[in-house]
Amino acid sequence: MSYHNIFVKSKILKKSIWLFLFLPLIITLSAPIVHDPDELGRVQIVEGILKEETFYKLFVMDDFEGNIPWKVHRSSAFLNHTEFIAKVPESEAFEYETNIYKKLYPIEANKSLMVRSYFEIPRREKVFIKPEAGISLPRGIPSRAFLWVYSNNYNMDLQIILKQQLTEIPVKLGSLKFEGWKRLEATIVVPPQNRWKHERKATPFEIKGFVITCEAFQKKGAFFIYLDQMAILLDRSFATYPGSEIIDNWDTR
Fold this sequence. Notes:
Blueprint: H1 3-30, H2 39-52, E1 56-62, E2 70-73, E3 81-85, H3 92-102, E4 112-119, E5 126-131, E6 135-136, E7 141-152, E8 156-164, E9 167-175, E10 179-187, H4 192-201, E11 206-214, E12 221-235
Antiparallel strand pairs: 1-12, 2-5, 3-4, 4-12, 5-11, 6-11, 7-10, 7-12, 8-9, 8-11
Helix pairs in contact: 2-3
């Protein structure tokens, strides 16, 4: 066998080994995340909590029907665009959740917020989506967040940013590596010092906006997502004992 044939076979063998070792990883990274098959069940859990636990309150932050203006903020204005579109999830879970929300707030379910922007340097840039003014939350400790998102299989993460005075509390809602509509749900962990400020000083929380960051393997270029029906579950258990409604202003005198 000639040296050339040995060299060619060696290269083929190396490529085969490389594919054997790394192909599963490539497939995993490129494949969309499978949707939660029990979205309806998760909505029903929230419904049960609201019925059985009187110290929980649900706050519908925005139904994205156009009542609250949103804008994209990033270093470059290239391709930044927001628009309210007649596009909503078509699922039993979304309809069921909408009916729950309608019992609490005069919401609609006809539109969603389309967000379009661009990543020039994916792993370094961030895209901020902010309301025209901060959205103040009612009394209560934010404990869970719910949001419907339409994605196109992006290697990106979506966060919501809570704010209390000068402190920002980022909450990861989830990955955008899926296709179509998906209900994102996340636990909100409020630091002890911020809980204390709210419980004893009634220092309010507000929603500052969303942040989109890129994961590895996300290519540069334009992207678009849709946002719909954002709600926050508030824990008011700290205000259930006699006298808890009195705000502690002792050290401010």
